[in-house]
Amino acid sequence: MVDMERIEGRLDGAGLRVGVVASRFNDLIVDRLLDGALASLAAHGVADDDVVVVRTPGAVEIPLLAQALADRDDIHAVVTLGCVIRGATGHYEYVCSMVASGVARVALDASKPVIFGVLTTENLEQAFDRAGGKLGNKGGEAATAAIAAASALRAVRTLA
Ligand code: INI
């Protein structure tokens, strides 16, 4: 059988330093995403001292602060959290597109995980469903993804 290297991304956050960028707009939702993210980081072994939380006014400002964190050599991954609700804004598409493309660009520019945990929903009910409601907590899922991706990245970079 051919020898094969498999890199799965272990869910062990020990030694990882993680930045979390969470917007204040729709904070009723985003605070729940933040709780979920912090609980997930702690559950996977990321030390409290190794978590830096930055709040932004809205989702539009998330990429800039994510970039400032991702540019630091001592930050291994960034989790972005926000909530854009279509019913509540006439410029929903612009806000969604700015935050989504900005976060994607920051990840590739920094060559490290910058995870998109920003909810984009039609209404408040859909947002609650994903912020600790019947569809889980997307903030927790984003934090778990950050740990898995950082671990996989480290394994790839240290391949023999
Ligand atoms: N910011 C959000 O995070 N969610 C929204 O739903 C939203 N709405 O509805 O407009 C929103 N707007 C503010 C935006 O992110 C910026 O903070 C603002 O435009 C200043 O740059």
Give every kind of bound small molecule, once each: 5-nitro-6-ribityl-amino-2,4(1H,3H)-pyrimidinedione
Number of strands: 6
Shape: globular
Which band does the percent of strand residues land in?
A: 15-25%
| Gyration radius over CA | 16 Å
Characterize the biggest β-sheet.
4 strands, parallel
Number of helices: 5
User: Strand pairing plus helix content: what structural class?
Assistant: alpha/beta
The low-confidence runs, each spanning 5 or more residues with pLDDT under 50, are none
Distance separating the two termini: 20 Å
Order of helices and strands: EHEHEHEHEEH
Strand order of the largest sheet: 2-1-3-4
Give the fraction of residues assigned to helices: 40-55%
Give average pLDDT, whole number: 96
Description:
By secondary structure, the protein is an alpha/beta fold. It has helices spanning 27-43, 62-70, 92-110, 124-129, 138-157, and strands at 18-23, 51-56, 77-85, 114-121, 131-133, 136-137. The strands form two sheets. Strands 2-1-3-4 form a four-stranded parallel sheet, sandwiched between helices. Strands 5-6 form a two-stranded antiparallel ribbon. The longest helix is centred in the C-terminal third of the chain and has 20 residues, at 138-157. The mean pLDDT is 96. It binds 5-nitro-6-ribityl-amino-2,4(1H,3H)-pyrimidinedione (INI). 5-nitro-6-ribityl-amino-2,4(1H,3H)-pyrimidinedione binds at residues 23, 25-26, 57-61, 82-85, 88-89, 95.
Task: Please sum up the structure shown.
The chain is an alpha/beta fold and 160 residues long. The chain is 44% helix and 21% strand.
